[in-house]
Amino acid sequence: MSHDLLDPTEALHLILDVCTPLPAEDCELDDALGRVLAEAVIAPEALPPFDNSAMDGYALAGGSEPLPAGSEWLIEGEQAAGDGASRARRGAWEIMTGARVPDGLDRVIAVEQTERLNAPPRVRLKAAVAAGDNLRRAGSDVAQGVAVLAAGTLLAPNHLMLLAALGVAGVRVATRPRVAVLCTGRELVDDAEAVLASGQIRNSNGPYLAAALPRAGAELVHRETVGDDVEAFLAAFARVRDAGARVVISTGAVSMGRYDFVPEALQQLGATAIFHKVAIRPGKPVLFARLPDGTLFFGLPGNPVAVAVGLRFFVEPALRAMLGLPREMPWRVPLATGCTKKPRLRFHLKARVAMDAQGGLTAQVLEGQESYRIRSLAQANAWAVIPLEASLLPAGSLIEVYGPSHLHSPDFGGSHA
Ligand code: AMP
Ligand code: MG
Q1: How many angstroms separate the most distant Cα atoms in the chain?
Q2: Residue 188 CA: which ligand is closest?
Q3: Per-residue pLDDT at 3 exceeds 70
């Protein structure tokens, strides 16, 4: 490896070394989607809360022997969902799905397996029914007092369904990391209505990061575009501080150009540079530093795809650690067509994962991998990561694939690597 380029795995270790989980805060259930549990949730109630019927039918009582087909039972009452406790004596109760089973009854037969008779109103069983049939026992889904969701759970609608059913009104979640974005470059134009003057381009990194960061679990607290001078950057940095950012991401001005002033600005801020330049493509000039007050600083090079890679492979793992989430595991997916690359750099390739005719997944590396090409990024739905030393990968090789955002990849767990 070139002596001044850091191994990307080592770079990630250096980042994770200085990322600590953020404190917990209270969150109402209505606001909890996408948040990460800071503590396990203990079931405050049993689920179901009472014995109830799994069927529309008739509730009956009997001994250990099934009640036989052909037997007839007088209808003694009716119990619908929402009715409170009732006391049964003998005979059958007409019962609806979800209705509390009258005390003293211990089985339900489905209405389809009965015949209703009159004078006196009674029911004849067309099948035998044993103790416990078609009952949903209190606590059979969740017993009161058990841990139902572990700390580190990323709350999805299925979790909210469970918490709502248990009467959990609020949860303790990890505080969202407060992140600020500073886009540098005197060529940048933020106003989409403005006509570009000669030499100007539109700022696409700013809107990209503003969209991607909340989806990655962060709270965007400040965003600003500055020119290519240290003074403007430092003035913007003061506003970043006022906004209470814990993580600052800059784009542009970290390479070798004459106007690449970010390292100098960081020096003036008293920051400790942890690394600058990593053996990756795109995004090689990425810089990571720590300010005296502990604020983390990611200096991403300005090319849009370098920004996307820096966010996905360095910032997002840091956010995960702050949120108390475990390390993310890539998928391993076969390459649809072979590819070659330069050794000594880890490549992050815009890719499309698609289903083949059998429903298996394949990863297609897209055309147009240069770091200024945004259109291919818009066509991509995944990143293919090709390790440092690999150079030639035939079709069918298993490669590491990452979804577009760490919180929006299916959570299948995983323990490889
Ligand atoms: P730099 O890292 O500042 O040398 O920028 C590298 C390339 O990315 C240059 O072509 C810049 O014009 C471009 N660039 C920098 N910042 C942005 C941005 N916010 N949006 C789109 N392109 C950018
Ligand atoms: Mg620049």
Answers
A1: 100
A2: 1
A3: no
Q: How does the average pLDDT of the chain come out, rounded?
A: 96
Q: Are 95 and 79 in contact (CB under 8 A)?
A: yes
> Tokens 């990561």 appear where?
385
Q: Tokens in use for 325?
A: 């989430």
Assess contact for 260 and 307: CB atoms under 8 A. Answer: no
Helix (H, G, I), strand (E, B) or coil at 338: coil
Average pLDDT score over residue span 189-209: 98
**Which ligand ends up closest to the CA of 250?**
1
What is the CB < 6 Å shell around ligand 1? 183, 185, 187-188, 201, 203-206, 251-253, 255, 257, 301-304
- 374-387 pLDDT per residue, tens: 999 999 999 999 99
CA 255 to the chain's CA centroid? 33
How does pLDDT run across 326-340, given as a tens digit for each residue? 999 999 999 999 999
CB atoms within 10 A of CB 166: 20
Q: At what angle do helices 316-323 and 8-17 cross, to 10 degrees?
A: 30
Name the residues around ion ligand 2, CB cutoff 5 A.
185, 252-253, 302
Query: Ligand 1 centroid to 416 CA: how many Å?
Result: 36
314 burial type by CB count under 10 A (0-12 exposed, 13-18 middle, 19+ buried): buried
What is the DSSP track for 289-335? EE-TTS-EEEEE-SSHHHHHHHIIIIIHHHHHHHHTPPPP--EEEEB
d(CA 138, CA 53): 11
Distance 63 CA to ligand 1 centre (A): 79
